[in-house]
Amino acid sequence: MPKTVIKNALVFDGENINEPRTVIIDGPQIVEDEEGGSNADTVIDGTGCTLLPGLIDCHVHIDSVEQLASCASYGVTTVCDMACWPPEKYEKLHSADVATRWLGSGLPAFAEKSTHGRLMRFAGVGMEKAVRGTEEAAMFVEDRVRQGVDYIKIIADAPGIEQESLDELQRSAVQHGKMTVAHTAHYDAFTRGLQAGFNILTHAPMDKALDSQITNKMVQRQTIAVPTLTMMETFAGSWVLTLFKGRMNFQNAVDSVAAMHRAGVPILAGTDTNNNPFMSVGCGKSLHHELELLVRAGLTPTEALRAATSLAAKSFGIDDRGRIGPGLKADLLLVEGDPTKDITATRRLRRIWSGGKAIELAKEEGSCTLM
């Protein structure tokens, strides 16, 4: 693979912005080079641009290998999928040799007599897979571990899985060394998720903004949040869902993120990419909007960038990406401007690399294949 040298660009290393310096790609990795890349095959002048680590979307629903591959054209080189069934689909995406790496949970833990239970039934999932008690909860985790999932996903909304079974899901996951991610789309679901001790709570409530009682507990228990503001905004704007669910207040979701941020809760960037006809969110490109919404909710642009790079990688235990440094995977994007001052600069993509390979940029706003 040819050696590429990027010169004169500002470097956001995953934590902070740095003055212009030379970054060298040799094969799939970022390397140190005492000769300063004098023997490079390609030299790129990054004057006026910023080099960033490849972006990580911490909540997606990917349907196909083709869709997964298209994420990279927007600079999203890693995604964390939050529900994948049947197992054959899981294996296909997990082993896909494409520019975007896919991590997944497989089937999420759900209750039969719940909204997600009905959705699972519609999707062809047998109700014998539902969690009905503590014994089934332990068996569910064991099944996912045998499948080789990256983390355990749980639906914690009520009505749903009973609290003692939620507690057992967490206990069993810890026993097997697996991290947990819980769907908590309502205020009460956050309470349930915190009581169980789940590692990551995803979504932000629109029925009631989170208060200090919740956010302080999140800090005490080192709970991480993935608010998926893009999805909550889409959800609130769907007239069909409003018809069935009633009016939803997106500002409550924004205020919840602001409250978590003030309290010091770690916040990650995730979009909830999906193909539901009533609340679809496009892959790849939507993460740039999520960063803008996080800034609107009170994060600084630098904090928002960390939410999609170094902090995301650390939270999901991915130690070879999310930062720029020698020996790390050469997942990189070059953008025009300085996104630590103007977060919308991440949209002005000029170059993308995944594992050191140059990736073609998305040609138009609607070019991303939806699920």
Question: Please, could you describe this protein's structure?
Answer:
With 371 residues, the chain is of the alpha/beta class. It folds into two domains: 3-52 and 322-358, Urease, subunit C, domain 1 (Roll), CATH 2.30.40.10; 54-315, TIM Barrel (Alpha-Beta Barrel), CATH 3.20.20. 33% of the residues lie in helices and 20% in strands. The chain contains 13 helices and 15 strands. The chain has helices spanning 65-71, 87-94, 115-122, 134-147, 163-175, 187-196, 212-220, 229-236, 239-245, 250-263, 285-296, 301-307, 310-315, and strands spanning 3-12, 17-26, 29-31, 42-45, 49-53, 55-60, 76-81, 101-103, 152-155, 180-183, 200-202, 224-226, 332-336, 349-354, 357-358. Strands 1, 2, 3, 4, 5, 13, 14 and 15 form an eight-stranded mixed β-sheet that branches. The protein has a four-stranded parallel β-sheet with strand order 9-10-11-12. Helix 4 runs parallel beside helix 5 (163-175). It is globular and about 65 Å long. Residues 365-371 have low confidence and may be disordered.
